[in-house]
Design a protein that fits this description.
DUF1508 domain-containing protein, 1 helix, single chain, about 25% strand, DUF1508, about 25% helix, YegP-like_sf
Length: about 60
């Protein structure tokens, strides 16, 4: 099963999104938005940014 974004209203009345993997595990969460439309725009922004994104390994701070 493919992953999915869930958009929802939290207990404080703000709107958030979370990305769930195919097995139901939450793998990412978004910030709080004042509207459902804002949360959906956040999802769209993540989808655009993730397409073709590279993986960068960071060095451990010493």
């Amino acid at each position: 099963m493919a992953g999915k974004f869930e958009v929802y209203e939290d207990a404080s009345g703000k709107f958030r999104f979370r990305l769930k993997a195919g097995n139901g595990e939450v793998v990412a969460t978004g910030q709080a938005y004042t509207s459902m439309a804002g949360a959906k725009a956040g999802v769209a922004a993540v989808q655009r940014a993730a397409e073709g994104a590279s993986v960068v390994e960071l060095e451990k701070d010493e």
